[in-house]
Amino acid sequence: MKAIKAEIKKAIHNPRFYGGILISWALAGLVVAQAWRDPLSFYLGKITLSFSLLYPLALFGPVGGIWGGTENIAEERMEGTLSTTLLRPLSRWEWYWGKAGFTLFYNLLLVFTPLLGMALLEKIMWGGGFSFRLLGGGVMVALYISSFSALSYLFSSLFYRPWGGPLLALGIGAFSWIVERLGGGENVQIYLITHHLSSFNIFFLPRIDWHQALSSFLILGSYTGGGLLIGALIFMRQEEK
Amino acid sequence: MENDVILKFKNVGKKIRDRVILEGVSFEVREGEIFGLLGGNGAGKSTLIRLLFGLVLPSAGYFYVGDYRCPPHNPEAKALMGGCLDNTSFYGNLTGIENITLFASLSSCYPRRGEIEYFASLLGFELSLLYKKVSGYSQGEKKKLSLLHSLFPLPRILVWDEPWVGLDPRGAKEVQELILALNAEERVTFFLSSPVSQEVEKIAQRAAILHQGKIKWNDYLTPNVSLEEIYWEIIERK
Q1: What is the DSSP string of A6-24?
Q2: Above 90 in pLDDT, residue A187?
Q3: Distance (Å) from the C-alpha of residue A101 to the closest C-alpha of chain B?
């Protein structure tokens, strides 16, 4: 808990923290502008504003998730602040999970603050509001972003340069996207990270396919949990020279 | 462990690849004393201090902090110590006081502004600087901040790596006075490292000389003992 509190204190003073949230709100602004410009297509397609926001969030969110990754282990290590922190009665394990916990929380903020704003706007305008389906879609997008954050953590724990982790995480994302575009092998594709870019759609079908939803949650959860856990194990074995 | 021993190194060794950094290091520091570790550049002083805080792990041997045997390192052992590394770093986008309170909170310590300002004034640290971002600090100011941050909470042992480096003569004197005051009034044990024998001689009650990763001398300092002479003798002996 001490480590998470410290992360929050640091974030409050960090312009990047607000930058990420501002960008997610800017995406919400773009969706509203699009609906303003072309309200008929939204009306005919029975598309809600909040649903329309999920796709841009899933598309650009990973950059934010990875961007958060640049702030993690490698940067603190290079700046020397990691050593200063570890002078305190805090284990490496506790420090790592404090940071990771904050990143997961931040990803939820990135997704849910504009989403809630959008749902509120809808409620005021048309009497709609926040629904279970929107919650499911939002969690799926947050998990998708978090799986990229986890990859960034994993690689960042390996490197002593801050950009190594994020670049490799982006590389894996790009590789996954290319393999998916090449097509074929449905059995393999489902395990690719970018295959789940639009998994939030499952929650907006007339009938939710729970089997598909669960498999997406499991695969993205494995990327997130596995990436963070392997990163932690690597980090535990390292030294600060 | 004997009652008054607070730090005890037992055959501690550290190898990085094929390079031997520390070999068979054994000595102890007693509670309430000022202990100086003298050694030239590359002697292994900073590595030994990093070992104490679990930043690096020993390749051989072990050590005690209070009653805690390390490794494995546990937070209870670190809670007994306050540390300042040779190059302690801070968050440049935070002010000095924000850095201090942030790091102190990791030790579950929440110092009041007045307390921080009090110790800052003892160190000759300009109070207005506490409210400025660390990115604008000079080398000496950063050094003083690193000493200051280790005082919250005031630990039983203060481990300071080269506390005088980067300070002007006045700053060095203020640091010496603070060490003596904390030792006399609060009974804080000091484990100080330095590459300069005069600094250790001025202040320490006991000292050890670390040369090429080995402890070459370890004894009480008396007016008859010239640490500098012993040091040169060891170096020239090879």
Answers
A1: HHHHHHHT-HHHHHHHHHH
A2: no
A3: 16
- By CA distance, what is B53's nearest residue in A? A87
Rg (CA), chain A: 19
* Tens digits of residue pLDDT in A149-183: 998 888 888 877 777 777 777 888 888 888 888 87
- Tens of pLDDT, residue by residue over A47-73, are 677 788 899 999 988 888 777 666 678
Distance from C-alpha of A70 to C-alpha of B166, rounded to nearest angstrom: 31
Residue type, A109: L
Task: Provide the Cα torsion B165, A92, A151, A212; round to 10°.
Answer: -160
Strand order in the sheet with B60-65: B19-30, B5-16, B60-65, B68-70
Q: If you measure CA to CA, which chain A residue comes closest to B80?
A: A89
- Most confident range (mean pLDDT) of A57-66, A123-132, A171-180, B21-30 is B21-30
Q: Which residues 32-71 of B are in CB contact (within 8 Å) with A? A: 50, 53-57
Q: Which amino acid is at B134?
A: V
Scored b (16 or more CB within 10 A) or e, A14-52 reads beebeebeebbeebbeebbeebeeeeeebeeeeebbbbb
Residues of chain B positioned with their CB less than 8 A from the CB of A239: 55-57
Query: Looking at the complex, does the CB of residue A237 fall below 8 Å from at least one CB of chain B?
Result: no
CB-based contact A77:A119 (threshold 8 Å): no
Which residues 63-92 of A are in CB contact (within 8 Å) with B? 79-81, 83-92
Q: What is the rounded distance in angstroms from the CA atom of residue A15 to the CA atom of residue B133?
A: 14
Helix axis angle for A15-37 and A92-126, nearest 10°, is: 30
- ipTM summary value: 0.92
Q: Do B91 and A10 touch (CB under 8 A)?
A: yes
Query: Considering CB atoms only, which of B57, B91, B146 is closest to A239?
Result: B57
Residues B106, A240: C-beta atoms closer than 8 Å: no
Predicted pLDDT of residue A227 = 92
